[in-house]
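Chain A, query sequence.
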Amino acid sequence: MKLVRDGTNPSIVCSFEKIVECLLNKKQLDTIKEAIVLQNPVHIWAVNPKYQLIYMNILFHTYIEDQLGISLRLGDNVLELPLPANIIRN
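Chain A, predicted structure.
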């Protein structure tokens, strides 16, 4: 993240995130972050160290459902999904 100077004192350096955190409360920040992730035009998903799905945006969920016929849920292990036989390669 690019750093910006305060303007009044050149020795004070603030990150963009800190400035935003000062202006918005946690609920507002969480709402903005969620909107960015949900409306993002790329597939976003995350798993924990046990490969359990801990986050996915709507685009990713819809793609998996349309392409594989699998309706993902949070907590699903992505390595144990019941993949259709026509996409499994030996």
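Residues 1-6 have pLDDT under 50 and may be disordered. The two ends are 44 Å apart (CA to CA).
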